[in-house]
């Protein structure tokens, strides 16, 4: 093997599965009959904070489980939204308005009307009451309030996501809208949904607790159960408004079942890769990018090794290659380096137990076989000898 040429890469605290995922642990010499990695990963799991599985599409406000409240349903207004107000046969109040920075709708001669985080129908009720209370009308007039364009909103996402922080989501670009949409009444967007905010934050981590994702708005805290959505079922993709805070709690364990593409998972993984010298002498000739390559969420280490042209070739010279993975625990920030003998992994019937899932920002390096290393050493010595003979 390679021990006589260069030192082996040391694994860091992963021998018995204490790292972020049990698949990092060092393979034993004997083969296991039962795959143990998922069970090892599940051992430290905290119980879900949300309702019992199968309860349905519900949320909790800390006072028990209830159905989705009106403040989290349907179209919700946010500051910067463009609305079309029409009061029957009245040119004074009819017109286009933008929800102000303070979250209110300001109409001529009326006190500002709260609009942030409310449905248009709720605001319409206040407009009608305001027109009557200000003596503009004796009887309640017909009033229509339609959304014309959604503004971008800035929300904060924290917890078990890969890229926490403030995120700008939403906005319907007028330049991209077709002519019919620009003159039509009403507006719709999926760009301000909870799922968009989670993907904008790099997607959920494998330790995320989807049963109790928190939405904090105007002093209220709601916990939303998103498990059905990840499993392919229906879920309430809440529309967010400016200033919302999203917190994804952690179950303190790696959940193998979350390593599949879903509405909240990372859109993909950017890998940093270094290829072999043989059979390719450069990343370009190895058909990989100069620095990185994109792979699907849920890709395993050995799949990327194959993708990096580190497998195959002439057995006599290309066997006994090795590959190293540099990863970082997203929960603690501690890095880990593991090394796998490629041919051994291909032969192992329990390879999935020691074949880690890739995470965003992982790096892979491939090493040539001993035969290749010796051959390269021979070429170097031959070159040195030829130079010495010329001198």
From TrEMBL:
Keywords on record: Signal
Superkingdom of the source species: Bacteria
Domain called Polysaccharide export protein N-terminal: residue spans: 76-145
InterPro entries: Poly_export, Poly_export_N
Gene3D superfamilies reported in the protein's UniProt record: Outer membrane lipoprotein wza domain like, wza like domain
MF terms (GO), sorted A to Z: polysaccharide transmembrane transporter activity
PANTHER family the UniProt entry points to: POLYSACCHARIDE EXPORT PROTEIN GFCE-RELATED (PTHR33619:SF3)
Name listed for the protein in its UniProt record: Polysaccharide biosynthesis protein
Source organism: Mesobaculum littorinae
Lineage, broadest ranks: Bacteria, Pseudomonadati, Pseudomonadota, Alphaproteobacteria, Rhodobacterales
């Amino acid at each position: 093997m390679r021990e006589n040429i260069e030192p082996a890469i040391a694994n860091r605290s992963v021998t018995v599965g204490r790292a972020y995922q049990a698949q990092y642990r060092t393979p034993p010499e004997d083969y296991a009959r039962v795959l143990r990695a998922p069970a090892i990963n599940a051992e430290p799991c905290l119980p879900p904070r949300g309702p019992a599985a199968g309860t349905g599409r519900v949320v909790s406000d800390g006072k028990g489980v209830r159905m989705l409240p009106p403040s989290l349903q349907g179209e919700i207004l946010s500051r910067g939204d463009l609305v079309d107000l029409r009061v029957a046969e009245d040119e004074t109040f009819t017109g286009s308005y933008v929800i102000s920075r303070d979250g209110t709708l300001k109409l001529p001669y009326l006190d500002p009307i709260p609009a942030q985080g409310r449905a248009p129908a709720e605001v319409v009720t206040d407009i009608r009451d305001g027109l009557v209370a200000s003596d503009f009308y004796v009887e309640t007039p017909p009033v229509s309030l339609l959304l014309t364009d959604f503004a971008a909103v800035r929300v904060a996402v924290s917890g078990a996501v890969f890229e926490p922080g403030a995120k700008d989501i939403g906005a319907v670009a007028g330049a991209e809208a077709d002519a019919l949409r620009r003159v039509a009444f009403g507006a719709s967007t999926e760009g301000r949904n909870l799922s968009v905010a989670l993907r904008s934050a790099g997607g959920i981590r494998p330790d995320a607790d989807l049963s109790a994702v928190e939405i904090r708005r105007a002093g209220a805290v709601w916990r939303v159960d998103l498990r059905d959505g990840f499993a392919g079922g229906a879920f309430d993709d809440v529309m967010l408004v400016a200033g919302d805070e999203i917190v994804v709690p952690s179950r303190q364990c790696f959940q193998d079942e979350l390593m599949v593409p879903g509405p909240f998972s990372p859109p993909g993984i950017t890998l940093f890769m270094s290829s072999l010298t043989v059979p390719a002498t450069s990343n370009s000739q190895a058909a990989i990018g100069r620095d990185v390559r994109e792979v699907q969420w849920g890709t395993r280490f050995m799949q990327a090794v194959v993708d990096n042209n580190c497998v195959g070739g002439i057995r006599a010279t290309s066997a006994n290659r090795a590959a190293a993975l540099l990863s970082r625990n997203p929960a603690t920030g501690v890095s880990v380096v593991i090394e796998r003998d490629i041919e051994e992994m291909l032969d192992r019937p329990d390879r999935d137990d020691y074949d880690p899932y890739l995470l965003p920002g992982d790096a892979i390096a491939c090493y040539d076989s001993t035969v290749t290393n010796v051959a390269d050493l021979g070429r170097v010595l031959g070159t040195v000898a030829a130079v010495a003979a010329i001198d």
